[in-house]
Every structure is written in C-alpha cells, then in structure tokens.
Amino acid sequence: MSSKLHRPIRIGRIDYTNVWPVFHHFDESALACEAEIVREMPAALNRKLRAGEIDVAAISSFAYGQSSDRYYLLPDLSVSALGRVQSILLFLKSPLEKAIHGKIALTTTSATSVNLLKIIMEKFYGGKPVYEDAEPSLDRMLEHADAALLIGDHAIRASWEKRGYRVLDLGEVWNVWTGHWMTFALWAVRRETADSRPDAVRSIYEALLASKHASESDREPIIRKAINQIGGTRSYWEGYFSNLHHGFAKEQQAGLALYFQYARELGLMDGQPSLTEWPEAKAAYSRKSQVNL
C-alpha cells in the first residue's frame, strides 16, 4: 500500500489537436507531485484508466459513462462543441440512403464517436448498417465499405484532400437533430487515487485549469503549433479552435445526458451514468477562477 501511495501519478494524454488547449501549457515537471505522462490513443487511455494502469486522463465520454462509478469528474474540463467539430467526420462513398443500410468502416480509436455514429444512423436516420473496425486509412476503409468514420487529426487531414466524398460532421448532425451540445471527452480521475492522494490530484487539476485558461486567453501558440505540425491555414485553425469548448457547464452536461439516454435506448450502454465531480475540486476551481478574473 505504501509503494502505491508514493509512486508517481500517471496522467493519460491524447495528442489530438482537440485537447491541445487543455494540455499545451501543462508541465508535469512543475507539479507539486511526481507525475508521469502516458501518451496513447483515446481507446487505449479508456482501457488503461479502467484497469488502474493510469490515474488521471482525458477519456471518451462513452468510456466515462460505462465506468462512472469508478471515477470522479474533474469539473469544467471537456472537449465539447455546439455544432461542427471538424474532427469527427463520416466520409460517404455511397449516397447516405444506401450507407445507412450498407457497410460503414469504423476507426477503432474512440468509443464516443463510434457510438455517436450508431445513434445518428439508427435513431435519427432509421438505418441499420453493418459496422466493421478498420485502421484509420480512408482509402483502405472505403475499399469495401459505403462510408468511413475518421476522428481527430486523421479526419482533419482527410477533409483537406477533396476527394469528392460527401462528408458529414457528426457534431453538426447531432446539433441539428437535438439542438444540444455534444461532449466528446471528459477529464476523469480514479476515485481511489483521488481519495488517497488529494493533494497530488489538486496539483494536477489546478495545472490543467491554468493551461486551459492560458489557451483561452491567447490561441496563437496552439494555432502556430497546428500549422507547423499538421499543416493547413491560419484561418482553418482559428475556426477549428473557436468551435471547440473545453468547459463542462449545465449546457454541456444536458447534451451528454441525452447522449447517454440514447445509448441506453439502443442497448449500447447499461445503467445510468452519474456525472459525479471530485468532491475536493470546488476549492481548487475557486482559486483558479479568482486568479484568472
């Protein structure tokens, strides 16, 4: 027990651009606790947090809903959008009317997006396609499928290539049908870690909030980073980061609750997830809010 209490806190980090505003100014070496960064795709972080291989992570909202009794939410942190998100995209080789009853190739990297697609296909459009998992390569995915789902930077790059496919932005489709926000990822901490090491978790949480506030105050560093590492134009990235929201207030919570409801109705999720915030977060959040007034 002693070694577990004193080992470094393991922090799961996705390197997709949609989480850069929260992580860009985050420096684990400046924390008041010893910490290690574990960089993985969203699906791998989902598994590692559930298994206790990491302690804190940005995970898929769907994965949080599946195991909400094991986690606390770190308040006011998410990846959300009210409409277009530009990085959760369905590429249609066939007409939509055929694809909803045809075959759709799925990226294996994110649970939230895959299940959002199933909700859209089955609940909104009344379809029942066959789904097959595939590596995120658009050409290979569409060799034997009517449509392909890509997320993150794979989706962004593919959207620039103008291959003639119709492209559906799942954030936009969700908003058109429901009028709600869509929350794709949440920051969660294992309850046992938060209960046994609250000071360490507080240090991490305050640093994440500070990084988010710094990015909100000045997007220039992450825009430059995106242009240099991924390509694209300044206007594209300005629009991209403007469309994203990294808080988690009542409006985002209502949209996620509806997503969970639809997932349960389609048999994609069992039980009623609880959006339980870390009990000690309020004091940390209040301090950071006062600093950034």
UniProtKB/TrEMBL annotation:
Coiled coil start-end: none
EC number, as in UniProt: 4.2.1.151
One of the GO BP terms on file: menaquinone biosynthetic process
Reactions catalysed: chorismate = 3-[(1-carboxyvinyl)-oxy]benzoate + H2O
Pathway field: Quinol/quinone metabolism; menaquinone biosynthesis
CDD domains: PBP2_Sco4506
SUPFAM superfamilies listed in its UniProt record: Periplasmic binding protein-like II (SSF53850)
Keywords, comma-separated and alphabetical: Lyase, Menaquinone biosynthesis
A GO MF label: hydro-lyase activity
Family: Belongs to the MqnA/MqnD family. MqnA subfamily.
Protein's job: Catalyzes the dehydration of chorismate into 3-[(1-carboxyvinyl)oxy]benzoate, a step in the biosynthesis of menaquinone (MK, vitamin K2).
Protein name in the entry: Chorismate dehydratase
This protein's encoding gene: mqnA
